[in-house]
């Protein structure tokens, strides 16, 4: 086990070294309530495979993650909610282990607040970018 895995707070939660309010535990996925919630029911769904960013996680370890987030959303009864996943410090990732937030939005004050600084896209630039990305996938 690498030193990153042994020092990772989420890896410690998965192993049971740190207690959690566990919601789901399977071979590849773990989910628990956030202890500093943006709203009641805020949960984290994480692959058990340690990796800092989404592209570090094998596809087979991600297979169940959104399914579990969906199960939590249904169980919560939340009519409005966000599913959020950040990669890197500039994108507001604080723990270097991939995790998905399920955040109920019961009203304007609680839950996730998002500014969405849209810009008018240049259609020629977008067309070129789409072709470049498709060629790399």
Automatic annotation (TrEMBL):
Task: Give the motif span (Histidine triad motif).
Answer: 97-101
The record's catalysed reaction(s) read: adenosine 5'-phosphoramidate + H2O = NH4(+) + AMP
Which Gene3D superfamilies does this chain map to?
HIT-like
Q: Which InterPro entries match?
A: HINT, Histidine_triad_CS, Histidine_triad_HIT, HIT-like, HIT-like_sf
Catalytic residues identified in the record:
99 (tele-amp-histidine intermediate)
Task: List the PANTHER family.
Answer: ADENOSINE 5'-MONOPHOSPHORAMIDASE HNT1, HIT FAMILY PROTEIN 1
Per its record, how is this protein called by name? Adenosine 5'-monophosphoramidase HNT1
Origin organism is Myriangium duriaei CBS 260.36
């Amino acid at each position: 086990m690498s030193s990153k895995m042994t020092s990772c707070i989420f890896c410690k939660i998965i192993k049971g070294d740190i207690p959690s309010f566990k919601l789901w535990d399977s071979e590849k996925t773990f989910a628990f309530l956030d202890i500093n919630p943006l709203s009641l029911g805020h949960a984290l769904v994480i692959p058990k495979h340690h990796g800092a960013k989404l592209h570090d996680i094998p596809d087979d370890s991600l297979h169940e993650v959104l399914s579990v987030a969906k199960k939590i959303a249904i169980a919560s009864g939340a009519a409005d909610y966000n599913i959020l996943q950040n990669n890197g410090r500039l994108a507001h990732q604080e723990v270097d282990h991939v995790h998905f937030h399920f955040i109920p939005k019961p009203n304007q004050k609680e839950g996730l607040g998002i500014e969405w600084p849209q810009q008018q896209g240049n259609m020629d630039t977008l067309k070129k970018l789409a072709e470049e990305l498709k060629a790399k996938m």
